[in-house]
Specification:
The structure is a homodimer. Chain A is elongated. The mean pLDDT of chain A is 95. In chain A, strands 1, 2, 3, 4, 5, 14, 15, 16 and 17 form a 9-stranded mixed beta sheet that branches. In chain A, strands 19, 20, 23, 24, 25, 26, 27, 28 and 32 form a 9-stranded mixed beta sheet that branches. In chain A, helix 11 packs antiparallel against helix 12. Chain A is of the alpha/beta class. In chain A, a hairpin with a 4-residue loop joins strand 1 and strand 2. Chain A is built from 16 helices and 32 strands. The interface between A and B is large, with 67 and 67 residues.
């Protein structure tokens, strides 16, 4: 288990930096005439910054003529602390931490707090270990919160279980900063002792317990907070945000790929709220990461929306560092690690160059330091797709009822609707009916356990032929496939098993496009640009098959998410989320 | 060693509080129509607060009709979080933690972070252990920072030594929140490895390293901060305070008995500085504690001076709790411990009643809950005054030089001046000369070690006869005495040895007044009111002997403080603080 604390400073380097600050030794780098964002006072002032190796040795006019091995003059350009994303799931970007770093470090992001919830659900402790190991020695600090919901519900078969003991085993690690979002808010509010114990465990280790309480308010919100949960990133309205802020939550304002809340909550990006506001991405898809960025996108958008620039930067750096108690991070100040971004322009938050612990690591949008990594080194997260024996009969639906439940995803949201349809039948079987946009959705348990297969109806995709399949299937990450033809569904499943996981589009008995995600069936071993391009090809193939939904593979991956209303399919069958129970497809 | 974490909450009580918040059980107390100070948003709003045992279960309009075993209606009176004093030395009040609690809890103070620097210098680890043990089960949380300067200088004999190993042994304790003020700022700035290691030790335990950097600025200040030191409470001017705030220090604004900085720094008690400002007392003498209060006095004075009342309260509660990472403390919010003060009037900060963890503990200026304590239970802190064999010759000064150094305390300050005098001599000996206000100052090592005795001249007291003596003698706490007659000096020393420490005023061969401080020679076992009265009697006796200095015993106790300029006397002799060396009395 990784126990490296990347930011721990040694006596030798502190002593060196003290000598540099006091003028007894020359610094490593003097950055002159920088407009420095001061996160302690929310102001910006032109001054000089002297580095001593990994550390900032001093900030001030007094360093104008300090000696240093290297000198640069920013001529008034802005210097800001490296940004820290306060909450995200790296797996959502479908890439390794190294590839993620290559994407965001040039944008000024030098740290993130990730919840390895997805890989945890597939691979358990070894999955989290893989993430920790594969995020060492990056030009990006990767801090981890321990997934608290593995599995997320009793209505699904996940690849692993993280119980209190497993969480307690991870909490002492130096890069583990807390217990991740406790999503089972109904259980917390109901006083469920296991969930309450998870929050208390964080407290026992003097770490944080993170929250996830969408639309929870009033007495329910107060009950949720009593557990000792310290944050939330699910507020979607200003009123909801204000209530949570006033109740004491560290309010993380989220702008993900799917869920975008910054515009609504922008009035809270206000210096009067001091250290109580954070900016986080939660989930960003490869294309958005490339086109818009990571947490830098939120800073840019907040500034464009009229927020105080210094404070917007503080919300995505110092405030996050304070919340998680990350030592020596999040400020341009003496004794802090020299994680810095030089801006071309403050209003645009356009980044010219980036320093990580004093080293130049990126310039003009590109890493200038090679990342060495061996993402495939960890066996337990490879070969995680173990399907039961499947054949044409696996996806049959006997025609037992006059009416059936059918899942309808709501475009641009994670929500689904449960609708009632009269199925099309033939020879005693329910069949797909592309003319009515009634397709089959299958969920195949892929963790090599009981090998359950569940089948239901779905509408909204509009496929005229073929099938789409994914081993990303929140939160259990079983194989989900939507399709018109049982043969194509079968081919798609078999192809994903061969790939060790991924996405596939299949039509007329052929694989039309695919993206291998061999790491836990969730993550590619290729760079972000390639993953993004393959995803575009996949989406084009889906469109050619008739798909009408935005981001069809993401939509598919959420159809198994049994914690968000209304109707979902897991390997155990249909889940009515509002009633919190398994329900049959047929309505009798 | 005490390892009780008084605020740790149990699963059972959290579950109970969740049930109360959610409305499934009745609360213990409903406080209706309170004007509640919200420390997260710095505003004040009329609402209701529901308690469940030790915890706050909920705050909000929604609780207007909540069920509770008890109900009170504040009719608009203010409800604020119990105050937390961010830095003080309890020993300065000359009383036990229990007696201190009796003094400040009725004033709305429910927590404090103390640096047992004085008792640590006398009794080492057992002294700190005594403090921890004797501050359990009070209606006041006592958190501890580990003294970092025991001894303070190499120019003195202290009773104990706290090295890195001893500090490391204390840091894991749950009530130990950091390493106390690192006063040896010249050593830190000079890169002294032992001092740097002390700061890093705090970081290793994820605790704080506190600062003490009077008038340190510019490159020196930056160097001091590089060590990882997170706070300062020594700023005396607005300019100094601003520089420290901007450099990243948690700026503790101090208003002690001797050093009073609030007026100068009041502009920094401004909501725009969010969580970066704290209010602390540092040292408060018994009389001031009774007449003015503890950290409540700072809140009152800040509000009277025009500060935003909600923010002033926040600076003495939530901000301190955040700085030291005290869980569930410092706010009136769900999940926080119910440490609360009801105000008669916000502008006066006059306290009507106080709740500690949900229990009513004080009302109208008096504790309503008995404090059980056994302050004398710990042997190692009793019988700590062990003088060498003294006689009339012990205090002789041979007349060896035409001119001598003489200490002159500056009234109302801790500073002293070094002046040069031509001594009065007789029979080859330097004698006291009341007409010229030249008295003898003696420092007798009292820890039973080498038994050194040092004697010098002092001016300013104006005694016409007799002697004053104290076993409080910062920071080594050797016996200090000032006097006209060698016989009276001798009597004073002997009397203090009999008492096990304390203060004495002696004249014409008789003890005129005394205060026993049997606990480490620093602390009384009597209540604050009695200690204060005895001190007044002592001061009256000193006045009768001719004393002209304010607070003569405090002044005397600081004459050995070899870390503050200009001239001091320890058991090893005169210390020139600016030159950081021992100097002879005679100038040759």
């Amino acid at each position: 288990m990784s126990d490296v604390n990347p930011g721990a400073v040694t006596l030798v380097e502190v002593r060196e930096a003290v000598d540099v600050a006091a003028g007894r030794k020359q610094g490593s780098l003097l950055i002159r005439n920088a407009n420095v964002v001061n996160v302690f006072t929310n102001d910006i002032a032109r001054t000089h910054v002297l580095l001593a190796g990994r550390l900032i040795a001093g900030v001030g006019e007094i360093f104008a003529a300090a000696e240093a091995r290297e000198n640069i003059d920013l001529e008034g350009r802005h210097l800001v602390p490296g940004l820290i994303d306060g909450h995200l799931h790296i797996e959502s970007a479908l890439v390794t931490p190294a590839a993620y770093a290559a994407g965001v470090v040039p944008r000024g992001v030098t740290g993130l707090v990730c919840d390895p919830h997805e890989i945890g659900n597939v691979a358990g402790l070894p999955g989290i270990r893989w993430l920790l190991q594969n995020s060492e020695e990056l030009p990006l600090d990767v801090w981890v919160t321990v997934p608290s919901c593995v599995p997320s519900t009793p209505f699904e078969t996940s690849g692993a279980l993280l119980d209190l003991e497993a969480i307690a085993a991870l909490l002492p690690l130096p890069r583990v900063v807390g217990v991740a979002e406790i999503m089972s808010y109904p259980a917390v509010i109901a006083g469920d002792e296991e969930n309450l114990a998870k929050a208390l465990l964080a407290e026992r280790f003097a770490k944080t317990a993170e929250g996830h309480a969408p639309a929870v308010s009033g007495r329910d919100l107060q009950a949720y907070l009593v557990a000792g949960i310290g944050s939330d990133h699910e507020a979607t309205t200003l009123e909801e945000g204000r209530e949570k802020l006033r109740a004491g939550m560290f309010l993380m304002i989220r702008e993900g790929s799917v869920t975008r809340n910054l515009e609504a909550l922008l009035p809270l990006v206000n210096p009067r709220y001091g250290d109580r506001i954070g900016l986080v991405t939660d989930d960003r898809l490869p294309h958005d990461l490339l086109a818009e960025g990571g947490v830098d996108f939120l800073v840019r958008k907040a500034i464009a929306g009229g927020a105080d620039p210094a404070y917007a930067i503080r919300c995505a750096s110092f405030n996050v560092a304070r919340h998680y108690r990350l030592p020596r991070r999040g400020a341009v100040a003496p004794g802090y690690l020299a994680d810095l971004a030089v801006l071309e322009d403050l209003a645009d938050f356009s980044v010219e160059s980036v320093y990580k612990e004093g080293r130049p690591v990126a310039s003009h949008g590109r890493l200038t330091e090679a990342i060495s990594h061996d993402a495939m080194g960890a066996g337990p997260v490879l070969h995680t797709v173990h399907l039961p024996v499947l054949n044409r009969d696996s996806f049959r639906i006997p025609a037992n009822g006059a009416r059936m439940r059918c899942i309808r995803p709501i475009p641009h949201q994670v929500l689904t609707e449960s609708i009632i349809v009269v199925p099309t039948t033939r020879d005693g079987e329910v069949t797909t009916d592309p003319d009515r946009d009634l397709l089959k959705l299958v969920c195949v348990e892929r963790h090599g356990k009981q090998g359950r297969v569940a089948v239901s109806l779905v509408t909204g995709f509009g496929l005229r032929a073929g099938a789409l399949a994914s081993t990303v299937g929140h939160d259990h990450h079983n194989l989900l496939a939507v399709g018109v033809s049982d043969d194509d569904l079968l081919l798609a499943c078999r192809r994903l098993e061969q790939l060790g996981g991924g996405f596939a589009a299949v039509g007329n008995g052929k694989v039309l496009a695919e993206l291998a995600l061999p790491i836990a069936g969730l993550v590619s071993d290729e760079p972000l640009t390639i993953v993004s391009r393959k995803l575009e090809v996949l989406e084009q193939a889906a469109a050619n098959l008739g798909n009408r939904l935005p981001a069809p593979f993401m939509t598919l991956s959420f159809l198994g998410l049994a914690v968000i209303p209304e109707l979902r399919l897991t390997d155990r069958g249909l889940v009515d989320v509002l009633r919190s129970e398994l329900v049959p497809g047929e309505i009798t």
